[in-house]
Each structure stands twice: as structure tokens, then as C-alpha cells.
Fold this protein.
Amino acid sequence: MLFWFLSFVIALLHLGMILLLAPWVMGFQKWLEAKIQGLPAVPFWFYRRELYSANIKRLSSFSTTTSFYSPLLPYTGLGAVIIAALLVPTFSVGMVTGSLADLLLIIALLMVVPVVFFLTALRYTSLKSLKLLQTTLVDSLLFLPVLFFIAAIIHFITGSTFLDAVVVFFHQFGELPLMAYSPLLVAACSLFFVVWDMPTFSQKEGIDGFGGSDKGLLLYINDVRFLVWLSLIALFLWPQSLAVLQSGDQDFTIWLRAVPFGLLAWVTKIFVECIILAIMRSLLLFSSGIYRVGIAVILSFLAIILYFAGLSGA
């Protein structure tokens, strides 16, 4: 009983952390890119006004909006990213949501977001916003082969697409050679191209075509989606950094040791990923979307080749 209670508390802590820190991580990403490019930037620790007045506080508009179509559709996207955030392990596995943390389900939830964005744009007369969200939707759909290859390589390696199984597998086989890690590493690198355009979503001109409440909500959903993707990439890059909590761990001190160190590791990984993505974006490499899709597909397919090469070598 104690295990399930502590597991539930950690799940809520993990979800609250994602929802609270998502705008701050996005602000840090933009500030970091501006610094690398030598552009003027507001320090991300002064980003609070934009974060909460433009994003979180506008969530209260749900009760004041009179249109039936307007509130429900964006909130569908918000619900999808919240469920995805709850399912992606950040610093430990073995939570109450572990039995639902299927990579295919998480991908489906995250892919709902661009669809919701596009459908929301249909109720506005702004052609710029419609074109922006149409491009966002098409770009997201183009990355489906990448996500399919990644799910396939995860299934090949661990025999399952559940994220808990990925972490447990690499914990059990800690002495695996580099060839065993390389497919997962290459697959994780391909995901950086999936999140490439998310930091510039709020800076695009078409987003101004939305009403205040919908605009703030869509920006917040985009921030949460960005952090969920980064957490998923972090899990693939460093699967052994997550603590494995089992039903036999009734000692409260085990949880006290696992959670702070796991949280510190997660923050460090997100920080490193933001630096990597900022450098990639600042170099303006692969500026065309179709090139990024092609490189991501090649990397994810290369991961499968490396896996079978490792089998033949073994």
C-alpha cells in the first residue's frame, strides 16, 4: 500500500513539475539561442510576465468564452499533452502510470496537438494563422516514419515499446558494449529534428491571428509539448540515469534517495539538450524542413541497421 501511495505522489510531482517548468524551459531555450547568435534577449528569469499572463492566466478564459467550439478544441490538445507528460518517466520508473507508458500511445497523444492547432485555426479568418498551422500539421505528419522507426528499434532492443521496459533493460544489462547503446543513441538524436521548430512557434507571425485566450492556450500547449519531447529524448540518451522503483521497495529512505538525484539528473539532461538544440538551430543547418525530415529518417533507419549489425557481430 505504501508503494502505491508513494508512486502516486511521485507521479503527481512529476506531472506538476512538467506543467510548471515547461514555459521556463522554453524561455531558457529562446534566451540561449539569442545569446549564441549575439542578439538582444530578455533574461529568461525575467520571463515570468510573458509566461503567466500570456499563457497560464489565460486558461481561466474557459469559463468566460461563450462559443462551444472554441474552448473544447484547444483543451483537447491540453489534455493530450498532460496525459503524455504523465506517461513519460522523468526521473524514475515503476510509477502507477508505468503500465500505460507505451511509446506508441505517447506518440499518438503528441501528434494530436498539431491536429488540434489546425482545427482551431479554422474558426478564425486569418489566412496567416491557417497557413502557419497547416504547415505545422504537415511537418508533423512528415515525421511519422521517423517515429515509426524509433518505435521499431525500441521494440527490437527490449521486446516492448513500453518506456519502463527500456529503462529496466539497460539497468539489468549495465555492461553492454557501445554497439548495444548506439542504436538508441542515434534514434534519440533523430528526435532533435522533430522538436526543431517548436521554439519558434510563438515568434511566427501567423500566431497573432488568434484571439487572446486561444493564443495563450496554444502557446502553453506548445511549451508543454516541447518539454515532453525533451524528456523523451533524455530517456533514450541516458536510460540508466532513471531510478527503478519496485513494489518491494517499502523503505521510505529508498524513495528519498531516488527522487532528488533523479530530479537533478533530469534537470541536467534538459539543460544539456537545450544547449545542443540551440547550437544546432543557431548554426542554421538544415534550414529547409524537408531536409530535416530526410536527415531524421536516415538517422532513425541507421539505428535499425546498427541494431542488426550488432546482432551479426555478436
User: Anything to note?
Assistant: The longest strand covers residues 92-93. The longest helix spans residues 2-37. Residues 53-69 have pLDDT under 50 and may be disordered.
